Amino acid sequence: MKKLALLTLMAFGLMSCESENRVAVEFGQLPSQAQSFIKTHFPDKTISIIFHDKDMFDKDYEVVFEDTSNVDFNSKGEWTEIEIKTEPGVPVAAIPSAIANYVNAKHPTTFMIKINKDRRDYEVELRNGIDLVFDKNGNFLRYDD
């Protein structure tokens, strides 16, 4: 019983530390590159809330729109993830043209609902449930499950 109480207390402690690192911020507090990206690619979307995550090593931002779509940015204002589940999906002008061209050519009847990029690759999720992986230059690597 004491172990369960201790584990519960530790879990609440971790959650409270996490919530202290995630705060709501105003649009003007985003890095200028992120502000430009939002204005360029999402001019018609209304922002619901913007979160700033201050972890030990990262300072990331999440912009959530009223329709629950969202865009994540790193501390420099570069997008790291875009998730738009409503048609037309992820704006093709916001992503590498090689990826947009591949998806359009190989999957013309669907659209991208999510794209995630990191130092190694891009992961793309299509509306029909297919996941694709591209290298950092936008070259197709494989289908993912």
**CATH class descriptor of the largest domain:** Alpha Beta
Unreliable sequence segments: 1-18
Biggest sheet, strands in spatial order?
A: 1-2-3-4-5-6-7-8-9
> In sequence order, what are the helices and strands, one letter per element?
HEHEEEEHEEEE
Tally of domains: 2
* Count of helical stretches: 3
Q: Could you tell me the number of beta strands?
A: 9
Distance between the termini: 41 Å
CATH topology of the largest domain: Inhibitor of vertebrate lysozyme, Ivy
Largest sheet: 9 strands, antiparallel
Mean pLDDT: 87
Summarize this structure as a short list of keywords or feature phrases:
single chain, 145 residues, alpha+beta, Inhibitor of vertebrate lysozyme, Ivy, nine-stranded antiparallel β-sheet, 3 helices, 34% strand
Structure explained in plain terms:
The chain is of the alpha+beta class and 145 residues long. The chain has two domains: 22-80, Inhibitor of vertebrate lysozyme, Ivy (3-Layer(aba) Sandwich), CATH 3.40.1420; 84-145, Inhibitor of vertebrate lysozyme, Ivy, CATH 3.40.1420. Helix content is 27%, strand content 34%. The protein is built from three helices and nine strands; from the N terminus they run αβαββββαββββ. The chain has helices at 2-20, 32-41, 97-106, and strands spanning 22-25, 47-54, 59-65, 70-73, 79-83, 112-117, 121-126, 131-135, 140-144. It has a nine-stranded antiparallel β-sheet. Strand 3 and strand 4 form a beta hairpin. Mean pLDDT is 87; it is low at 1-18.
